[in-house]
Design a protein that fits this description.
Oligomer: single chain
Number of strands: 7
Structural class: mainly beta
CATH class: Mainly Beta
Shape: globular
Keywords: Glycoprotein, Repeat, Signal
Strand content: 35-45%
Strand order of the largest sheet: 1-2-3-4
CATH topology: Thrombin, subunit H
NHL repeats: 25-56, 71-107
Pfam family, one: NHL
């Protein structure tokens, strides 16, 4: 939810379509990052993926990493819980159950 200063209710900016794994849904979101363009990145823990919502397409997100089931492979997560970017645009994801942090180059 996004809250504008002085607002009495929030605005849904991602998900809001119930729990699930569709591109319009999240399942236990557990980390968020918003860049300077307003692009939203969400660690979608129970779907083992990181989603991106752009200002242009607010209706559904895009899977940018993960989404290949739970596991320990380089393209998998087991409950991602947090994320951040460095100044070079690399994405870092805390992969909770695999006890690791993974780095991805996002173009």
């Amino acid at each position: 939810m996004k809250w504008v200063e002085g607002a009495k209710e929030g605005i849904v900016v991602a998900g809001g379509q119930g729990q699930g794994n569709a591109l319009t849904q999240l399942y236990c979101p557990n980390g968020i990052f918003v860049d300077t363009l307003g692009t939203l990145y969400v660690a979608d823990s129970s779907n083992n993926r990181v989603m991106r919502w752009t200002q242009e397409d607010k209706k559904q997100g895009t899977v940018i990493v993960g989404g290949n089931g739970s596991g320990a492979g380089a393209n998998q997560f087991s409950n991602p819980h947090g994320l951040s970017f460095d100044r070079h645009g690399n994405l870092y994801v805390v992969d909770w159950n695999n006890a690791r942090v993974q780095r991805f180059s996002i173009e």
